């Protein structure tokens, strides 16, 4: 019957979801942040480097207060 495919569907779904959850834990372990910034576009890479230079943490929200006065 049709319900005989449910166990194999569940196993395949569980196995395919493991990498997504593993990346969450791996980023939390290595980057001290569970979320990774998207750096596919050049502008995003520029903003990542800028945030790292200004605050030392690219995941912190930056505003005008993050720019040092001279």
From TrEMBL:
Pfam families: MWFE. InterPro entries: NADH_Ub_cplx-1_asu_su-1. The chain crosses the membrane at residues 6-29. The keyword Mitochondrion applies. GO terms for cellular component: mitochondrial inner membrane. Keywords: Electron transport, Membrane, Mitochondrion, Mitochondrion inner membrane, Respiratory chain, Transmembrane, Transmembrane helix, Transport. It is found in: Mitochondrion inner membrane. The keyword Electron transport applies. It is a single-pass membrane protein. Its main location: mitochondrion. Accessory subunit of the mitochondrial membrane respiratory chain NADH dehydrogenase (Complex I), that is believed not to be involved in catalysis. Complex I functions in the transfer of electrons from NADH to the respiratory chain. The immediate electron acceptor for the enzyme is believed to be ubiquinone. Belongs to the complex I NDUFA1 subunit family. PANTHER family: NADH DEHYDROGENASE [UBIQUINONE] 1 ALPHA SUBCOMPLEX SUBUNIT 1, NADH-UBIQUINONE OXIDOREDUCTASE MWFE SUBUNIT. This is NADH dehydrogenase [ubiquinone] 1 alpha subcomplex subunit 1. It comes from Aedes albopictus (Asian tiger mosquito). The lineage of its organism: Eukaryota, Metazoa, Ecdysozoa, Arthropoda, Hexapoda. The gene is 109401545.
């Amino acid at each position: 019957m049709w319900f005989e495919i449910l166990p194999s569907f569940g196993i395949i779904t569980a196995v395919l979801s493991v990498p997504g959850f593993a990346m969450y834990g791996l980023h939390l372990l290595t980057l001290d942040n569970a979320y990774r910034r998207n750096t596919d576009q050049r502008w995003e890479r520029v903003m990542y480097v800028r945030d790292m230079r200004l605050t030392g943490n690219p995941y912190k929200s930056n505003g005008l207060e993050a720019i040092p006065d001279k």
